[in-house]
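sry for the spam today, last one i promise. C-alpha cells for design, 144 residues
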C-alpha cells in the first residue's frame, strides 16, 4: 500500500512540475510601409533635363557659404570634364646647377596640355542650387 501511495504521489508531483504548453503565438502583424515623397529637386537625380547637358556638384555644408559654393561649382566642372573626357595635364620641371656649395644656375619650365574627345568650346553656367540639412548642391548646365 505504501508503494502505491508513493507511486501515485511521485506521478502527481512529476505531473505538476511539467512545463505548461505555451499559448499559440499571435501571427506578426504586417506593418504598413509609408512611402516617403521626395522633397528635393528632380535635377539632383537627373541633371540632364529638357535636352540640357548638366552636372551636379555636391559638398557638405560649410560655415563659409562663398567657399562652399565655389567648391561645389569646381566639383561640378570637374565632373563634367570627366564625363566629356577632357584631360588637363601639367608638368613642371626644375633644375639647379651647384658649384662649390652655391647655386650657380636654376631652371624651371612648365608644360600644360589639354586633350579632349570633343572639339566644341562649352561653358557651364549655374542653373540652380539647393541645400538640405547635410549637403549643398549646385546644378550647372552647358550654355547653348
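last one done:
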Amino acid at each position: 500500500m505504501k508503494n502505491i501511495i508513493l507511486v501515485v504521489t511521485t506521478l502527481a508531483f512529476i505531473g505538476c512540475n511539467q512545463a505548461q504548453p505555451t499559448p499559440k503565438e499571435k501571427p506578426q502583424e504586417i506593418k504598413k510601409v509609408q512611402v516617403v515623397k521626395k522633397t528635393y529637386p528632380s535635377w539632383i537625380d537627373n541633371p540632364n533635363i529638357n535636352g540640357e547637358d548638366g552636372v551636379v556638384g555636391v559638398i557638405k555644408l560649410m560655415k563659409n557659404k562663398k567657399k562652399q559654393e565655389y567648391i561645389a561649382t569646381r566639383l561640378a566642372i570637374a565632373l563634367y570634364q570627366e564625363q566629356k573626357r577632357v584631360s588637363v595635364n601639367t608638368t613642371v620641371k626644375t633644375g639647379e646647377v651647384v658649384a662649390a656649395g652655391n647655386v650657380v644656375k636654376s631652371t624651371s619650365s612648365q608644360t600644360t596640355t589639354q586633350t579632349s574627345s570633343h572639339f566644341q568650346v562649352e561653358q557651364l553656367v549655374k542653373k540652380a542650387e539647393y541645400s538640405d540639412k547635410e549637403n549643398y548642391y549646385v546644378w550647372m548646365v552647358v550654355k547653348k
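Residues 65-83 form the longest helix (19 residues). ok im logging off now
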